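Q: For a teaching session next week I want to show students how multiple molecules come together into a single three-dimensional assembly. I've collected the sequence lines for a complex. Could you give me the predicted structure tokens for the whole thing so I can convert them for display?
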Amino acid sequence: MMKRKPLFLYSLLCSLLWACVLAPSLSLAAEQATVAKQPWSFRGIFGSFDKASLRRGYEVYDQVCASCHSLRFLHYRDLETLGYSRAQIAALAARLEVEDGPNDEGEMFSRAALPSDRFVAPFANDEAARTANLGALPPDLSLIVAQLAGKGGADFIYALLTGYSEPPESFELTPGLSYNKVFKGNAIAMPAPLFEDMIAYSDGEKASVERMARDVAQFLAWASDPSLEQRKRIGLRVVIFLTLFFVVAFLYKRRVWARVR
Amino acid sequence: MSKNPPPLFRNPVVRWLDERLPLFSMLRKEYIDYPTPRNVNYFWSFGAIATLMLLLMIATGLMLAMQYTPHVDMAFSSVQRIMRDVNYGWLLRTIHMNGASMFFFAVYIHLYRGMYYGSYKKPRELLWILGVLIFLLMMATAFTGYVLPWGQMSYWAATVITNLFSAIPWIGEDIVQFLWGGFSVDNPTLNRFFVLHFLLPFVIVAVVVLHVAALHVPGSNNPDGIEVKSKRDTLPFHPYITSKDSLALIVFGIGYAVIVFYAPNYLNHPDNAIPANPLSTPEHIVPEWYFLPFYAILRAIPNKLLGVIALFGGVAILFFLPFLDRSKVRSCRYRPLYRWFLWLFVVDAVFLGWLGSKPAEEPYILWARLATAYYFGFFLVITPVLGIVERPRPLPVSISEPVLKTASRPRAS
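A: Of course. Below is the structure for the complete assembly, covering every listed component.
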């Protein structure tokens, strides 16, 4: 049918080009240094997260990032996806305190966090966060990879965390800011967060800056899009089903139309 | 309906019901026996695709509405709850969110098919007008729906679009406050947008029923744009058109599935993953791709009021197309000149869309002005003038003649 009706094909191509190529290009913001693509295991049709890397990424978040950045859309129970047992999760949560209440006497009280609690934020509110960070607000990281999708997502996180260096001679750095080759304007309020061997990975992996950056970027990619694996798994089945259905429908249509041609 | 002999239903329950309320006869007449021109091509499948998209949007939307909270403090996190905690909530939402794009994609092709084959011409003017009304309602529904997740783009799109009404002289400011339910886009705005977003799809369903009813009076147009002359020209809707539409629907579904499962945020602006913040304006406020051509028209005109008139005029002018086109020949197959101007119109619309995604600066503004001039020139000058001066190619004698090509009968052209 396509051969006989090129018109159909042209307009389809036109619209597809529009929908897929031109429209999304608008979200590509100007970047500083180029953000290199990393070989993430969660890329591609069959992609899935590297569980060991996710657990290490959680350790980096927990021991480094969490002192300033909240992760408010995640619950401790979500860590089960990373391979932690319920007892481990309960223990991880119990290290932190949350305010609860009021109790029977009308008083608010503190208790240990439960797996059903959201990740405890480091600051009570944005104002407290700004005050503690020289006026800069450390963003919540729950959706950071989705928010940075136009700049490279997890690739950008990795490039940012490994992109700190001394500023070039010619660069005038505002006091209190740090030089980063991928951040907009090359001056970022967050000081370089990662240093060689600053944490001890529980699986014994060596905590190089690149290793930690890669692990935490993957962890944040998971935090932004926790349904990725299930989505790709179902998607494959749906596409295979529809393709088989197409073959059946095609044979049926040809048989029906054979009567009139 | 009453003229037809009552069709035989063997099932006694069906027969009992049908004698009292002829639902089955009606469905049989409109969706099984309905005589369709035998030469319709795959462009004609997009009406069915759009109908099913509407139903899918309503089905997924209903389930999302059961979990969503229309409050400025909770809307964003309730969407995150759907994405993270509700069983298959991520699936419902990605189907719904990308469904809007797929729906518009189908409707744009459907609309363009109507233009290319002259489906808006007598006796189908009202059918076309109802269709444009559906398009308009879809735009309102899509816009109100886009505001609901209460991300940065949601909030700022709501601000920009509602502010358009402030261009109306004298009463503009009052209208905007009336739309907002306050002095800025705030909780009352979000709450009413949710109500409207819930209501409008059912209004669309009602207009779709009228649209289909108006279609089934004169019957479908066809690629030759000529009237059905005999029974030889048509085929019953089922199984011929249903089998063809199914095929188109499955191909469409595969494309849709690939987006939903492998690129669910591809058509989304990343800024909408940031919760709405009235104190921080995004660098570029851009609407969804399906509004971009109209956005470019708005920004092409330096005067705010005239820009808003042009924006709405860009849609409203479609209502008048049946009366602007004076040509008696429907199909562009037999209109050698108009065809090229119509293709240029498509290129122009896509170009306008691309310009709409660009910042409002030179050279884009100049290009947008030229493209806007062609957009309106096409409807107001080219279409009426070509209707008079163009010499159409000779039309075939009947639909079945070119289809059932026989060696003995010479072709009309």
